[in-house]
What does this fold into?
Amino acid sequence: MLEIKNLHAKIAEGREILKGIDLAVKAGEVHAIMGPNGSGKSTLAGVLSGKPGYEVTEGSVTYQGKDLLALAADERAREGVFLAFQYPVEIPGVNNMYFLRAALNAVRRHRCEPELDAGQFLKAVRAKLKELEIGDDLLQRGVNVGFSGGEKKRNEIFQMAMLEPKLALLDETDSGLDIDALRLVAGGVNKLRAPDRAMILITHYQRLLDYVEPDKVHVLSGGKIVMSGDKSLAAELEKRGYAMLADAAA
Amino acid sequence: MAHTMSAKPETAPYRAGFSPAGSLAEKRREAFARFEELGFPTRRDEAWRFTNLRPLQDKAFAPGTATPGAPPALEPYFFAGETHRIVLVNGHFTPALSKIGGLPKGVTLGSAAEIAARQPALAERLLDRTDLVGGQAFASLNAALFADGFVLALDPGVALEKPVEIVYWGDAAERSFHLRNLIQLGAGSRATIIESYAGSGHYWTNAVTLVDVASRAALRQAKLQHEANDAIHFGQVRASIAADARYESFVLTLGGRLSRHDSFATFAGEGAACGLFGAYLLKGEQEATNATFVDHAVPKCATSEVFKGVVDERAHGVFLGKIAVRPQAQKTDAHQLNKNLLLSARANVDTKPELEILADDVKCSHGATVGDLDENALFYLAARGIPADEARRMLIEAFAADAIDCIEDDTTLRAHLLKHVQRWLGRED
It folds into this structure.
């Protein structure tokens, strides 16, 4: 599904952040990428999703056999890459439903599926809300406008469910959530696990992994993956803290 | 540059054929003398320093005459919903295209020329000397040359449920259409008026609307300016707002090569409110000015102003907003905001919000911004698969809709304005 080889990237006209990442994710797998602040987690999410402001200086990213880095951000999304934002953007004046319908129809056009009219779309929305067991209170508001932290993350998960991506990147989706919101978000992620879908959870803390069991855990530090293992690695990190990275290096 | 600085259209060509007759002749002659005395403004006049009158200088636009031609296709401009409709073609009332329909008792609506001939008091008001305010040569020329317009007069306490719709169409090449309108709302009365200016070819619209809102009355006035690409448009509204009355206007500027809208509002009684809202969306080589002047001459009145501009390609948008709070106008509440989106490196915006406060117990604010589309929002939309041009349209529409949303309690009117914004954006459902 996704193969990252020797990926180097820097902030445009700035310093190098990613210093040679190698990572392979297969369909159906859930990988967690953990790491301390400043290790390059968000840069990795930005580079994979096509966020402007980063420059890849070396290496390659292959997604479903295609050169992912050659695609614009909107093309990547239509190809099935979804980024759940750490800080979802507020867009005043753009209604959440209108936005989501535009997004879904862009993806459907790309997949050569017929666009949904307002009625069909509403039906699809209702079905998905029921499946995820979430309310419809956010639908008629401006995109993320005035949403609490938890509501924003819930909206991200809901969008992910509607757009049915092949590769989902969740950038610190767990940060700043109380326990109820965390459960809700984790429940959504678990429901969306599927044999043809890969997920990458980027997180600072282990607690999301109490609710979502990853197939693999990687530790990112200094722009490189310094450790990989199964879910027990996350538990060990939780116990010993990121200081263990220094111990391991010593 | 020296050439444009000196651009000053000649007044002399407009005297050719000026021979007023009838009961208003004397007033028209006075107005013409004022026009000649003032002359057309130049960029040396503070209120006109951002406006290039070159398109008016190139040739004189003789007044349009009533010309029976093929009826224009006006449907795209009509309001969705029932209205009392007046259509003016090339500056003249056109009964065949109008549909005034049944009017409630106490409502006068019709051609300004016809009504002025019957009712001397309204004729008097139609040609009073308020066009001296602001040194507006265009208003004086209008008073001298106007052929027609509309009059809407409501007796006290009358609520006109259906909106009044005025559609102005111009297609007589190189002609000028001087329209003079009067809206008089008696105490406690209520009306909504929706004006649409459209046309085809190279012509000049010069409209003046006089508005009296008596105490406790409420007038909402929406103007959609989608003149032909090559047209010139000047429009001004002079509103007098009495105690506890409300005047609200929305000006949507989409068309014309050179256009300007002036709103002059004066509070004549305490507890009154004025909302001046608008949006201008410009591209190509369009130049458009929205100028407002609100005179807080009495205490305890409120003004709210929101204008939003979207300026693309080589277009030029101008906002001039002045609110004057006189020494006696305590407890004034006045807020003014102008926000602009510049969508191209060659687009240009001049914005000049201005508060002149001479009272000490007031709440006033003003602000202006000029910026680009929000990069973070664009990326968020892209990350959901929305193509770049569609994402831009969504954000531009939302930006303009923010001003339209200032109109409260009228979803049909908001939808009508939004539809025309979407049409401008090339997005129609």
